[in-house]
UniProtKB/TrEMBL annotation:
Protein name, UniProt field: TerB family tellurite resistance protein
Organism (species): Lacinutrix iliipiscaria
Organism placement in taxonomy: Bacteria, Pseudomonadati, Bacteroidota, Flavobacteriia, Flavobacteriales
Region span, Disordered: 38-72
Compositionally skewed regions (Low complexity) per UniProt: 58-72
J domain sequence ranges: 201-263
Amino acid sequence: MSYGKWLGASLGWSFGGPIGAIIGLALGSVVDAMSSGKGNPLLGERQTRQSTRQQPYRGSQSRTQQQRRTETTSGDFEVSLLILASVVIKADGVQDKRELDFVRQQFVSMYGKDRANKAFKLFKKVNNQIVPLRQVCKQIQQMMDHASRLQLMHFLFGIAKADGMVTDDEERQIYTISGYLGISSRDYNSIKAMFYNSRDNAYKILEIEQSATVDDIKKAYRKMAKKYHPDKVEHLGEEHKKGAEDKFKQVQKAYEQLQKERGF
């Protein structure tokens, strides 16, 4: 039995719940590699939720509470994203290179090339593990607000669509994740509609029925624009605003489409 791996997992469960166990096991494998002379640990693989909080600050040593909170929350989101992405990619039994490339590209766009490469190396280790999905999602639900969880859902659909289509297996897996995360069916269908083409997608994105009146549409637009406004995930840091902007643009596009169809 590999001592380093299971020590890492045990420490993870003690200090970070199921997510800590997964990351601890991944980091433990690095310890094993060192002890067997296979190489040195990668700096990026130490970017767990706890170590992210402990990284030295370059510049003024005084840090505001908001800065610390943003750093911690961004670390929570990054680790949660890594784990759930690995679940979705394996949902259909085929790990398509386009999906893996999408994950890497998203990391690069959010974190920059250097940090993204390190995060992706950790992702590949997490990807080799069996994830206790329900427990992981419940932990994410407890530590992450609603807007951040919606952002995770948007990212997961993006992964599934990276190879050109969302398979039934992938859709079922994301639906399961949404339930465990406490995402309502309306919110789930709204985000899902952003990745499909159908005549009623605009209505689904705005979370209304096709029988909605013009006043209903306007009211729904104001509500959804507020829900998906990029400022809602400002606490995650600038790197996560792009994904929020994509959702916001989809809401605007849906509203403009109904304006054209309904003539108002």
